[in-house]
Write a structure and sequence with these properties.
Layout: E1 5-10, E2 16-18, E3 21-22, E4 27-28, E5 31-32, H1 33-50, E6 58-60, H2 71-81, E7 86-95, E8 103-106, H3 111-126, E9 142-144, E10 157-164, H4 177-198
Parallel strand pairs: 1-6, 1-7, 7-10, 8-9
Antiparallel strand pairs: 2-3, 4-5, 8-10
Helix pairs in contact: 1-4, 3-4
The chain binds zinc ion.
The site of zinc ion (ZN) has 5 residues, from loops.
């Protein structure tokens, strides 16, 4: 029998950078990447746990209390958990650079990461979020880069960039907790669809 699926969630930043400070990620006014991603990841975790029913997936969110973990520690943690589980790992980010829309980064040659990225962007489209793609197409908003540290973890992994903290129109889509929750729950729906396909 296949090992159970374990969804592994990370909020990307908040790593200890010394001097009592943590890495905030991208910042624009009151929009702080690390704080937004933390909220989304908590909503995502709750959604997955509350909608599990008789499904057999597990959820791990080691930064749940708000701390940050270094990327290399995530990779080691994922490696350890893969003894018992099929991990599916997502690292949550927001972008800066004045753009618009969401996108995914996945490792090269991992069809499971690609499948999950497509499902996530499809669910974002359903709630009206734009894609960061000149032609509006899902494939254009999926980038492959195996050199990103989080993507060096084994198994399906991806980075989700939920939007631009300094995107003047973009951030209107996530300036309330209600909207952050909706974005997170759409990701949760995509993860459950992934589970249904590969359980
Ligand atoms: Zn980031």
């Amino acid at each position: 029998m296949a090992k159970p699926i374990l969804f592994y969630i990370s909020h990307g930043h908040r790593q200890d950078v010394g001097g009592g400070k943590t890495d905030p990620g991208a910042v624009s006014g009151k929009f702080v990447e690390a704080d937004l991603a933390y909220k989304c990841c908590k909503y995502l975790r709750d959604y997955l746990l509350n909608h599990r029913g008789s499904m057999t997936y597990k959820v791990a969110y080691p930064e749940y209390k708000g701390n940050g973990m270094h990327l290399w520690d995530h990779v080691q943690d994922i490696i350890r958990r893969r003894v018992k589980y099929r991990t599916v790992a997502i690292d949550w980010h927001f972008n800066a650079g004045g753009g618009k829309g969401c996108e995914c980064w996945i490792p090269k040659n991992n069809k499971y990461s690609l499948e999950l990225a497509k499902l996530i962007l499809e669910e974002q489209q359903k709630i009206g979020r734009p894609l960061h793609a000149y032609d509006g197409k899902i494939n254009t908003a999926i980038h492959k880069d195996s050199t990103l540290q989080f993507l060096k973890a084994p198994g399906p992994t991806l980075l989700f960039e939920a939007g631009y903290v300094d995107g003047k129109t973009d951030r209107k889509d996530f300036d309330t907790d209600k909207e952050l929750k909706q974005i997170a729950e759409a990701v949760g729906k995509a993860m459950i669809r992934y589970y249904q396909k590969y359980k």
